[in-house]
Design goal:
Strand 15 and strand 16 (376-388) form a beta hairpin. The protein is built from six helices and 17 strands. 11% of the residues lie in helices and 45% in strands. It has a single domain, classed as Porin (Beta Barrel). The protein is globular. By secondary structure, the protein is mainly β.
Length: 425
């Protein structure tokens, strides 16, 4: 089976390699060449990418998860328009992210369109943007990883490392990056840059999205939403970073990002959102070292649950006074040559339910990517996953009498082998 899988997986990479030529043009470059001199169209630009991935795994949770696919297809297309009048740039971006395959939790289309205005002195103002300033300024090992970039892709949390109560993510954004926001990005002054964002609430519907921007997975006890009606209101996030050095010699970037918002619910009282990320990237020529730390504190934990809440069998199903929504540690190193890219990284997340009961996720990653030309790249990636469940939260999920969904997962051990190709347009 594995031999057939590897042969099938290599076919698209071989086809791309044969199609790649040195003088090939990106679609955006081709369109720009053809629209020169057309007053409206010359201010438009287009860019995006396509990522095809195949995976095989020997994860221990496989018998308990239905319909695991070995194929994933991601696509991003962005159309930008900018007109400069009297030193003020005005424009918009129309963006769509398409996700297909069980790796991503099913197919989805996410709209990322927004309006913007910018000046050299005041920076850029974005209206209706989906990412928060905290998310934009979050730094982690994903910034120096090549290949599929597993954790940052959103693929791991769904099936391969999702045990009861685990936390997987490099930043805290409980509006799922879908709520409409106002975002300000400062100009860079002597290496320093700032960002600020505000979202009225996470029930804002973006284009093509459902009213509350949430799926059933977001409501599980393991994800820590207090209940199915929970949402976030008056979300403020900010970030600050400092960059120094020469890209061809020694360089560094240090960044701090933070989140603060009200936790709301129609039927309960969740805690407020609070969290922060600290990260740094050190570079020297083609080498990069990145590391990050995120603390989500006790964001959105339900206030009414305590150490005294038990099911009919006497199992503790509430969160004790020491509960938190997760701490994430990660470090990675990468080499980025003209043709070859290589990286290795380690991700460690801890979610604590009481002083002696916690869930952990540990992921070690190695990836190699070959850039056939500026349009096409092929890559292989290996991930070793060790996810340990929390007994307390597993009992909570199994206890249907007290709000659980009856599907608490135990510990997971997995080896993931991913092979795929990236196409830039």
């Amino acid at each position: 089976m594995y031999k057939k899988f590897l042969i099938f997986s290599l076919l698209p990479c071989v086809c791309f390699a044969q199609a790649g030529v040195e003088d090939s043009k990106l679609l955006g470059e081709f369109i720009k060449d053809k629209t020169q001199g057309v007053s409206l169209l010359e201010d438009l630009s287009i860019h995006g990418n396509l990522n095809l991935a195949f995976v095989t795994s020997n994860q221990s949770l496989a018998p308990r998860v239905d319909d695991i696919s070995s194929f994933s297809l991601d696509g991003n297309v962005y159309i930008d328009y900018k007109k400069v009048v009297d030193g003020i740039g005005l424009g918009f971006q129309i963006g769509t992210k398409a996700r297909s395959g069980v790796m991503k939790g099913g197919s989805a289309i996410v709209d990322t369109s927004y309006l913007f205005a910018d000046t050299d002195k005041l920076g850029q103002f974005r209206f209706g943007y989906s990412k928060s300033a905290g998310s934009i300024f979050t730094v982690s090992y994903a910034d120096v990883m090549t290949g599929y970039n597993l954790v940052d892709s959103g693929f791991v949390p769904i099936f391969f490392a999702q045990t009861s109560g685990t936390i997987l993510g490099t930043g805290f954004d409980k509006d799922d990056a879908k709520a409409l926001k106002f975002v300000w990005l400062s100009p860079t002054v002597k290496g320093w840059s700032l960002a600020f964002s505000y979202a009225p609430n996470s029930r804002d519907g973006h284009l093509f999205k459902e009213k509350r921007n949430k799926s059933e997975r977001d409501y599980s006890v393991g994800q820590n939403f207090a209940d199915q009606s929970s949402y976030i209101k008056d979300s403020f996030t900010a970030g600050i970073s400092y960059e120094y050095g020469d890209p061809d010699a020694f360089n560094l970037k240090v960044s701090v990002a933070g989140w603060l918002a009200q936790g709301k619910s129609d039927i309960s009282s969740p805690r407020k959102v609070q969290g922060y990320n600290v990260g740094a990237i050190f570079g020297y020529g083609k080498y990069k070292l990145g590391m990050g730390y995120t603390d989500n504190i006790n964001s959105m934990l339900p206030r009414e649950l305590s150490d005294d809440v038990r099911d009919d069998n006497g199992h503790v199903v509430g969160m004790g006074p020491g509960a938190n929504n997760g701490k994430v540690y990660n470090i990675g190193i990468g080499y980025f040559g003209d043709k070859w890219e290589m990286s290795a990284g380690y991700f460690h997340a801890v979610k604590k339910w009481s002083h002696n009961d916690k869930a952990t996720s540990k992921i070690a990653t190695v990836a190699v990517q070959y850039n056939i030309d500026k349009m096409v790249s092929a890559y292989v990636e290996y991930n070793n996953i060790r996810a340990n469940s929390s007994d307390r939260i597993r009992y909570s999920e199994l206890d249907t009498k007290h709000g659980g969904d009856g599907s608490g997962f135990g510990n997971n051990r997995a080896n993931l082998f991913i092979i795929g190709a990236k196409v830039r347009i």
